[in-house]
Amino acid sequence: MSDIRAVAKQYIESAWSVVPLNPGEKRASVKWQSTTYKPSDFNDDSNIAVKMGDASNGLVDVDCDHPFAVAAAKELLPITGRVFGRSSKPSSHYLFVCPDIKTTQFTDVKATDGTSQMLVEIRSTNGYTMLPPSIHPSGERVVCPGRILHDFRRTAVRNLELAGVPRSVAMKLTGHLTESVYRRYAIADQRDLRVAVERLDAMTSAR
Length: 207
Description:
The protein is α+β, with helices and mostly antiparallel strands. It folds into two domains: 3-149, no CATH class; 155-205, no CATH class. It is built from six helices and eight strands; from the N terminus they run αβββαβββββαααα. It has helices spanning 3-13, 67-76, 151-162, 167-174, 179-185, 190-205; strands at residues 18-21, 47-51, 59-64, 83-86, 89-97, 104-107, 118-123, 128-130. The strands form two sheets. It has a five-stranded antiparallel β-sheet. Strand 4 and strand 5 (89-97) form a beta hairpin. Helix 3 (151-162) runs antiparallel to helix 4.
């Protein structure tokens, strides 16, 4: 399995609906909205996108198009752990789970010639976003700074487990459809085992 097919598999396991894109482009098949794609639908050099909104359990992309919006997002947007971009525009996309949010575009005031520049787009149902590790038309790779995008899902699951959040609630937050897939992310380390032993010891000592 090539890297891009492995990434597609990971995104699908995240309950995201993937879309193969032409190599080095953002363009998809004209039938992308009505097609459910599998990892085998990707070529070795395909780019990859994910359908936003209903198709991916309410996943929404806050696409910061203007440099001012990129700078403001770091200060104003909630922490998501799902941030990516490219070298000339790093951290310009923020993913959130926001069911029922509609796609909305925010533009600058119109210039004297009647044109305006896109500032931010909230992209939801009927749209898609190109995700790592795609190659942007500029030739730059789309990356999650310092991490792969999937790492943050593991962190979220681990933190939910440590916080004692009921698994049914945690799965709603992370977008997992089955507990078997969710458990792959609930990785126990030595600290977890030590805490478990300490809690068991405290309980038996209190009897």
